[in-house]
Amino acid sequence: MTTGRRRPGRTAEDTGPDPAGAPPPLDGRCAALLGELAADARVLGWSEGVHLRTEYLTARNAVVRHLVEWHAVRAIAAETNFALSRPTDAYIRGLGPDEPTPAAVIGMWSWSRTPLPDNRALLRWLRRHNTTLHPARHVRFYGLEMYGTAPEEPGGAPRHTVLDDPVDRPHAAHLHRLRVEHRASGGDHRDLAVRDAAQYLTLQEVARRHPDGRILLFEQVEHLDRRVTGSLGAHLARQELGRFRAVGAVWRDGDPTVRYPLGRYRDLSRRLHDLTKAGPADAADAPAPLTGSAGSVVFDLRPWQPTTADKSPAARPDAPLVDTATAFDAVLYTPTLSPAGHIR
């Protein structure tokens, strides 16, 4: 890690050389920013702008590692099917073979038709990390979705396996009933408010199971946006589960590899591009590099939040930052994206 402190309870083995494939350490300034956000957060959201991009998955892996090692994250929840995520959770708890099965890897993001190597690498690291902990303190993984099965929505519920935790089965059955009812009424996975209501239901269950420690969410940016009606972020903004902090994500406007529209994030992307190229006059306001590679940076949006933002005419160029600061506490900007690899 880039900090000089050793977290209480870390062993000499924990601080030794990283094994091959381990998530990269965060840049020191990015680590400090995440530490400030995590300090008072019960739930911390980390976004990707679009799916299946190497840079977002690399960023996620580095953030997961940092928050697990240094900030008492005990549960990781993601935009993946709850029932299909149970082999993933079983694997990182040390159950089953040493190498993750395709089901365990796909369960980390069940929308994918094939397993992703970035997901496999993170699962290996989480399993290795959990071997240093008492089972009661293991990091756990949960999918939040009632949708999210690949390659197509099957008619029946996923079959249980010997590795399933029996306490998961009633909730998996409940989500399956909700999905069947929603599809029978003509709905599908594009109904964000319905999907995210089910995700919030699952997150409440995760919070109940983990009354101590922090919960880390990994979602596509719109799901964590407090401004989007019915989104998971809007539910969490009520703070019924405790303080919610979130980091958004955008990509460069005009990136030829992305067909998904920037939409409401276009002006923000353009402003972040300008700030990244020009560099701020005050070095203290400089964006924090993520891992020292790939050009990804994290902008702290807290100076533009309503209690501190400058409302004078001079602040107009930063209007996209002021607007976005009502939704997120920071934002990840990635100027270059590349397709994620697949395990064949």
From TrEMBL:
Domain of life (superkingdom): Bacteria
Region (Disordered): 1-26
Matches recorded under InterPro entries: Emycin_Estase, Hydrolase/PRTase-associated
PANTHER family (UniProt xref): ESTERASE, PUTATIVE (AFU_ORTHOLOGUE AFUA_1G05850)-RELATED
Name of this protein: Erythromycin esterase family protein
